[in-house]
From TrEMBL, chain A:
Region (Disordered): 117-137
Pfam families found in the cross-reference section: STAS (PF01740)
Annotated STAS domain residues: 2-113
Coiled coil: none
SUPFAM superfamilies registered for this protein in UniProt: SpoIIaa-like (SSF52091)
InterPro entries per record: Bact_StressResp_Reg (IPR051932), STAS_dom (IPR002645), STAS_dom_sf (IPR036513)
TM helices/strands, residue ranges: none
Official protein name in the record: STAS domain-containing protein
Automatic annotation (TrEMBL), chain B:
Transmembrane segments: none
InterPro entries: HATPase_C_sf, HATPase_dom
Domain annotation Histidine kinase/HSP90-like ATPase: ranges: 40-139
Top-rank lineage group of the source organism: Bacteria
This protein's name: Anti-sigma regulatory factor
SUPFAM superfamilies: ATPase domain of HSP90 chaperone/DNA topoisomerase II/histidine kinase
Automatic annotation (TrEMBL), chain C:
Occurrences of domain STAS (ranges): 158-269
Annotated protein name in UniProt: STAS domain-containing protein
Keywords: Phosphoprotein
CDD domains reported in the protein's UniProt record: STAS_RsbR_RsbS_like (cd07041)
Length: 137, 139, 286
């Protein structure tokens, strides 16, 4: 079984999914990431899916789970590089990727995480008050 | 990506493991490209195939997938048949409802796949296995 | 209805032995129909070419138009009707170019008083009918192709995605949006977001006279898809009638930002990006 490599760049873990993942590979990635977050103490995870030509409900659920797990471990997850055709298909499929933050590319993803950490540091008690209302569930 | 697929006859792929689901996706992608589906339509049909092939594996206990390039005289398309001899589905209407799941998934497999294709046909009965046929036409 | 081998041979004989008469009558009938819209020389060239192709096919033993031996004849017919379709001749005019051969055959056979003549004429006429119908089909096919090409060109023309500011792209939609066009526009918009790395898109519908449920759904789906990709969409220029339609149809725009004009939308985005340096706008998916 192939494993997806996890790179550490500064305070961020970068996962660039390059292969057409089997479900087992996806589950393994989920486990590996949780371990690496704890081991490195990183506060941000960027999952780059630029190379993925489809995201089905299994991979979608994996992304949601990773986001939830890393939140519990005090790390912010951003999914970056989703292709337009993939996004259109996900909307049609009815998958909304609950609770996942997204950005257009790795650079924007890093900015998002940096701003988020910054925000948290400056006003711990004011989280979310100036945030656009989130979409209905 | 596998090349040199013979489009004149159906391509079969057994589904018995995780890796086979990946192979189904690749086969469907190859044929979808060959019949000149748009990029978005390719993505939709490959995603639908991924969902249904996983159902065949998880709920049907494995089975076969057959991919055929078709032509209705006006436009080309791709037809995929997923067949298993598993327990079948007792309440079809319920199984086709968004969010309904028996396997711990998101419950979007059947209902979602149906939204992604043009034609969707399902034949099933308890103890009789399940046979799903989907078609996506080129626009 | 295929010709017998004998009939095919006799038709070939007739066409060659009375070649002058056939071609003269043929061009006459077609010429009357087209009333000078095709030069005499061009007309004669077309008729001669058809005549030659038909004789060739029959000479090789073709008994109907679908035969292997008639491949070249079919090509000539298809080429002829393609040309006519492009030059704006009507379907009737194009098909008449072939059907006129019946007149020509009749005039060539008039002198022959034998009983076989009528039977032959009916068989020959059936062959000409096949050719005429084939011409008609090719004509329609060409016209359909032309229409599809034009529709595509129109789509290209009418759906520009423009960069409005650093990180902001806009699609000014003009004219009636049908489902197919809405889909193309939206795909192109999403692709432009990726290509330019712009996290904001403004969809301006000032120039759209009406919105139906399907089109509204397309716009909504695009906004959701853009969010999945990490970009925000703002819809601007909703006219009063469209706002009424949207509410009457029960379409839920939810938390999608809407602004009265493109200028307002741009101001809104710039304010957001200005704020962003200190506090990043959160794009939490719901």
């Amino acid at each position: 079984m192939e494993r997806v490599p996890i790179l550490k760049i500064g305070d961020i873990l970068l996962v660039s999914i390059q292969v057409d993942m089997s479900d087992q590979t996806a589950v393994a990635l989920q486990e590996d990431l949780a371990e690496r977050i704890v081991a490195t103490g990183c506060h941000g995870v960027i999952i780059d899916i630029t190379a993925l030509d489809i995201v089905d409900s299994f991979v979608g659920r994996m992304l949601s789970t990773i986001a939830s797990i890393s939140r519990v471990l005090d790390a912010e997850t951003v999914v970056v590089g989703m292709r337009p055709a993939v996004a259109i298909t996900l909307v049609e499929l009815g998958l909304s990727l609950n609770g996942i933050r997204t950005a257009l590319n790795v650079e924007r993803g890093m900015e998002l995480i940096a701003a988020e950490r910054d925000h948290d540091r400056h006003d711990e008690f004011d989280d979310g008050s100036d945030v656009e209302p989130t979409a209905s569930p | 990506m596998t090349s040199g697929v013979d489009l004149s006859r159906p391509q079969a792929q057994t589904v018995g493991s995780d890796e086979d689901v990946v192979r189904v996706r690749q086969l469907v992608r190859t044929v979808a490209v060959a019949v000149k589906l748009s990029l978005v339509d390719q993505t939709k049909v490959v995603t639908a195939a991924s969902e249904l092939a996983r159902n065949t594996l998880v709920y049907g206990g494995g089975g076969t997938v057959e991919v055929t390039a078709v032509d209705n005289g006006r436009r080309p398309g791709i037809t995929i048949v997923f067949a298993d001899s598993g327990p079948g589905i007792a309440d079809l209407e319920l199984a086709l409802t968004d969010g309904y799941t028996t396997g711990g998934g998101l419950g979007l497999g059947l209902s979602g796949a149906r939204r992604l294709v043009d034609d969707f046909d399902i034949q099933t009965a308890p103890g009789q296995g399940t046979r799903i046929t989907i078609t996506k036409w080129s626009r | 209805m295929a010709l017998s081998t004998d009939e095919s041979g006799r038709l070939a004989d007739l066409l060659t032995s009375r070649v002058d008469r056939v071609i003269q009558r043929w061009t006459e009938v077609v010429g009357e129909q087209l009333r000078g819209r095709l030069s005499q020389a061009e007309l004669l060239r077309q008729v001669q070419e058809l005549h030659r192709a038909l004789v060739d096919a029959l000479g090789k033993g073709a008994v109907d138009l679908a035969a292997e031996e008639a491949t070249e004849l079919r090509a000539v017919l298809a080429e002829l009707s393609r040309g006519q379709a492009r030059q704006g001749f009507s379907a009737t005019e194009t098909a008449t170019g072939v059907f006129a051969l019946k007149d020509a055959l009749l005039s060539a056979m008039e002198d022959d008083q034998s009983t076989r003549t009528l039977r032959d004429y009916v068989a020959f006429a059936a062959m000409v009918d096949q050719m005429g119908l084939f011409t008609f089909e090719s004509y329609v096919h060409t016209r359909e192709g032309l229409i599809a090409d034009q529709a595509e060109q129109l789509l290209e023309l009418s759906t520009p995605v423009v960069k409005l500011w650093e990180g902001v792209v806009a699609v000014p939609l003009v004219g009636t949006l049908d489902s197919a066009r809405a889909q193309v526009v939206m795909e192109r918009l999403l692709q432009t977001l990726v290509d330019t790395g712009s996290p904001y898109a403004i969809i301006d519908i000032t120039g759209v006279p009406a919105v139906d449920t399907q089109v509204a759904q397309h716009i909504l789906k695009t906004v959701v898809a853009a969010r999945l990709m990490g970009a925000d969409c703002i819809i601007s220029g909703i006219r009063p009638q469209i706002a009424q339609t949207i509410v009457a149809l029960g379409i839920e725009f939810g938390d999608i930002a809407t602004k009265a004009s493109l200028a307002d939308a741009l101001r809104h985005v710039l304010r957001l990006t200005g704020v962003e340096s200190g506090r990043r706008q959160s794009r939490r998916e719901a």
